[in-house]
């Protein structure tokens, strides 16, 4: 759950000396970010020069190939084969980019239909002051997914993640963010599940500028899942099956879910519990209060006392009142 940066035009210069039959000429390609890429020009039998590139071949595109933000993606994906590219405009300053390999063309089609709406859904809660032109990549293999997310220090679920590819200064609006889908994501969660994942990861991306590592995960993950599930035609037990089972067995939570619960065997419950906390807060105090609480608690690690102070300041409630209200809300939904 993290994320990327703006790049402008791509200019390249290359030259060669035709009389040197075996010479290799390096031409530098300068991106707006200052990154450099080398193109190798190999003379072929004194004929036309053949260009060997270290960028993935673009097989088809909806006119996105000239988009300067595509170049870093093409370089990173080059070892994994040719790519397909789509642009999705939603009224933001730049177009969102969707990238997948030919083996995942159907995933690309699904995401192309869903992305504009997902961006709008996130903006409906968070506002439009975020980079609404993400780069979304569908990995073709587990190895590619790992490479694209691990290298960027991604966090998140194992079916999708937001990765930060550039340097990032907390408090600034990151633009070098991308969302990466696991190759099996659509098979595992279906088309509607892809839309939910998209909204969840887009929420992480939208809130990144206001989010500092170490902030309480119940707030970060619960908020992303609240935005992802909001206004969908899904029931409580569909969204939170593990939580529902426990509630029906009479087990009500006694505290907000701890950060340590988000990894390991109880991770599904942790996400569902965090979602239910935020869904309750939005239901009881309103979406604006929930968003205000997010901005306050996402500023870094929060002691129990600091969280208590935030509950009082934003919600006008003590922790005990919040927990009592949440449990009553849960009891009413677990029947
Ligand atoms: Zn998440």
Automatic annotation (TrEMBL):
The chain crosses the membrane at residues 20-42. Keywords: Membrane, Transmembrane, Transmembrane helix. InterPro entries: Peptidase_MA-like_dom (IPR039568). Pfam families: Peptidase_MA_2. Residues 199-331 form the Peptidase MA-like domain. It comes from the Bacteria. This is Peptidase MA-like domain-containing protein. It comes from Nocardia fluminea. The lineage of its organism: Bacteria, Bacillati, Actinomycetota, Actinomycetes, Mycobacteriales.
């Amino acid at each position: 759950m993290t994320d990327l940066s703006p790049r402008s035009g791509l200019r390249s210069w290359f030259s060669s000396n035709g009389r040197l039959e075996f010479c290799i000429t390096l031409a530098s390609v300068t991106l707006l970010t200052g990154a450099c890429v080398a193109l190798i020009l190999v003379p072929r039998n004194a004929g036309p020069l053949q260009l060997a590139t270290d960028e993935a071949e673009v097989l088809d595109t909806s006119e996105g190939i000239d988009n300067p933000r595509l170049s870093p993606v093409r370089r990173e994906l080059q070892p994994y084969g040719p790519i397909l590219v789509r642009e999705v405009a939603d009224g933001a300053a730049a177009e969102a980019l969707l990238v997948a390999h030919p083996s995942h063309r159907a995933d690309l089609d699904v995401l192309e239909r869903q992305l504009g709406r997902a961006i709008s859904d996130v903006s409906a809660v968070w506002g439009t002051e975020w980079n609404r032109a993400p780069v979304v990549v569908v990995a073709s293999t587990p190895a590619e997914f790992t490479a694209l997310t691990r290298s960027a220090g991604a966090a998140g679920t194992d079916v999708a993640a937001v990765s930060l590819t550039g340097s990032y200064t907390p408090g600034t609006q990151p633009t070098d963010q991308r969302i990466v889908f696991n190759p099996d994501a659509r098979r595992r969660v279906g088309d509607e599940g892809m839309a939910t994942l998209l909204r969840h990861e887009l929420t992480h991306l939208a809130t990144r500028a206001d989010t500092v590592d170490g902030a309480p995960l119940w707030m970060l993950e619960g908020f992303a899942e609240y935005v992802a599930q909001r206004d969908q035609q899904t029931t409580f037990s569909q969204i939170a099956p593990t939580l529902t089972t426990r509630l029906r067995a009479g087990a009500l939570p006694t505290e907000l879910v701890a950060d340590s619960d988000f990894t390991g065997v109880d991770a599904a419950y942790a996400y569902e519990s965090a979602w239910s906390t935020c869904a309750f807060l939005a239901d009881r105090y309103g979406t604006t209060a929930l968003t205000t609480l997010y901005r306050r608690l996402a500023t870094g690690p929060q002691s129990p006392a600091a969280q208590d102070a935030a509950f009082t300041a934003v919600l006008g409630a003590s922790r005990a009142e919040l927990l009592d209200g949440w449990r009553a809300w849960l009891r009413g939904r677990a029947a």
